[in-house]
Design brief:
Blueprint lengths: L5 E3 L4 E2 L2 E2 L3 E4 L4 E3 L7 E7 L2 E6 L5 E5 L4 E3 L10 E3 L2 E4 L5 E3 L4 E3 L12 E5 L2 E5 L14 E4 L4 E3 L9 E3 L3 E4 L2 E9 L5 E7 L6 E4 L12 E3 L11 E4 L7 E7 L2 E6 L8 E3 L6 E7 L6 E4 L12 E9 L12 E3 L2 E5 L3
Antiparallel strand pairs: 1-4, 2-3, 4-5, 6-7, 7-8, 8-9, 10-11, 11-12, 12-13, 14-15, 15-16, 16-17, 18-20, 19-20, 20-21, 22-32, 23-24, 24-29, 25-28, 25-30, 26-27, 30-31, 30-32
Length: about 350
């Protein structure tokens, strides 16, 4: 859900305002959301409404339209939900997608055993965690699996296929997927926390930029910047929901960062760049964003170094991180590879 618009609040009062299990924060004060709901397990914003998964009281899933709560037919009372590929994702035993009217199980899903799923979006894929075994018929997909929209994939590790795994929580931090749970490896060792990230040749982050309302942005890359890669993308997190950001790129860097225009935003792209480019970067409802930067098949680009950075403008009703409502990501150095 939008990090600065709504907060799950498991109590009868929010900031002194009577509110039963759920409340709304407008940037300066709390407000009750009707008569409230039962114990709220998770929330998400989907198609302009707030969805809440409820485990007691008004069981199942509830939708807030701005003035009242409504039951969502077939909506699971699961502890997790997210928005992915324009669908609301939830489900206790099976991952299900909701298009606003119908729930459907994601294609290819099956498990040998398990339940209580948790969900996150990582590098464009839907990640499902839980206590399941052999997800989608993949022997090594125990407790954690990813779906690219067509096929399911495991998270096999360098230590071999885990003999058992459970995942209770998923989170994205600085471009990495963080999970809790337990993983038993073939060598007998146990891991209780895990993280997955991809190290890309020719990609190096520096600086911190200026945090937005949801915290510091992490700008990353989908892959190494290889000449002729028409699918190359930049990624950014903690952006305003459903917003349009701006990526600036140039051939000069400002490692320390500066605010040359006096607008309260740190820039890491050097204004002395002889080449400057801009690209649109749209964000989704969860604040994750992608920008397509196709790299031409020009051999002369190999070895050139560019610096990129993302800029965001925050709507006033969400918050004002700086006087002009702007925020910026870290700098990202990109060395074109062959």
């Amino acid at each position: 859900m939008s990090s600065s618009a709504l907060r799950r609040y498991l109590a009868d009062f929010a900031g002194g305002v009577p509110a039963f299990n759920v409340a709304r924060w407008d940037g300066s004060q709390w407000h009750a959301m009707g008569a409230g709901v039962g114990v709220c397990m998770s929330m998400a914003v989907f198609q302009g409404s707030v969805y809440a998964s409820v485990s007691t009281g008004s069981n199942g899933m509830q939708r807030w339209d701005g003035s009242a709560w409504h039951a969502v037919p077939g909506g699971p009372n699961n502890g997790s939900m997210t928005v992915w590929n324009g669908k609301l994702i939830s489900g206790f035993s099976d991952p299900m997608a909701f298009d606003g009217s119908t729930w459907t199980v994601l294609p290819g899903w099956s498990v040998a055993a398990g339940g209580f799923n948790t969900y996150a979006v990582f590098e464009g894929d839907l990640v499902v965690g839980g206590g399941f075994l052999d997800a989608a018929g993949i022997p090594e997909a125990d407790g954690l699996v990813r779906f690219d929209g067509t096929m399911w994939h495991s998270f096999a590790t360098a230590k071999g296929t885990p003999s058992a795994a459970t995942t209770g929580t998923l989170w994205i931090h600085k471009g990495e997927l963080i999970t809790n749970g337990a993983v038993f490896y073939p060598d007998g060792t146990l891991s209780s926390w895990r993280r997955w990230g991809r190290s890309h040749v020719g990609v190096s982050a520096f600086g911190v930029g200026t945090p937005g309302c949801a915290g510091p942005h992490t700008l990353g890359a989908s892959s190494s910047p290889i000449v002729g890669d028409a699918q190359f993308q930049l990624t950014c997190d903690k952006a305003p929901s459903n917003a349009l950001g701006l990526v600036i790129a140039g051939d000069a860097a400002d490692p320390a960062g500066s605010d040359p225009f006096g607008i309260g935003v740190v820039l890491h792209v050097g204004l002395g760049s002889t080449q400057l480019f801009t690209f649109n970067m749209p964000s989704d409802a969860t604040g994750n964003a992608l920008a397509s930067l196709p790299i031409p098949p020009t051999p002369g680009l190999v070895g050139l170094v560019f610096t990129a950075q993302a800029l965001w403008h925050w709507p006033p009703f969400v918050g004002t991180p700086t006087p002009f409502g702007l925020s910026s990501s870290n700098g990202l150095s990109l060395t074109i590879q062959n």
